[in-house]
Amino acid sequence: MVTVLVVEGMTCNHCKAAVTKAVEGVSGVESVDVNLESKEVKINHREATSIETVKEAIEDQGYDLA
């Protein structure tokens, strides 16, 4: 399954790395692709993966979801 989230506040490679690491730490996530220009985080994950948990992991890094 693929889910795309729009994340506000990402401006640099440090932001990209922080969001990537946070999302990869969620159980069931298989891969993450962060695009700084479009502010999109594309997440490949198992169907049972909690998107709410993914959102919380991103917000815990200090970023807002659009």
UniProtKB/TrEMBL annotation:
Gene3D superfamilies: 3.30.70.100. InterPro entries: Cu-bd, Heavy-metal-associated_CS, HMA_Cu_ion-bd, HMA_dom, HMA_dom_sf. Keywords: Copper, Metal-binding. GO terms for molecular function: copper ion binding. It holds the Pfam family HMA. GO terms for biological process: copper ion transport. The keyword Metal-binding applies. PROSITE patterns: HMA_1 (PS01047), HMA_2 (PS50846). It comes from the Bacteria. Residues 1-66 form the HMA domain. This is Heavy-metal-associated domain-containing protein.
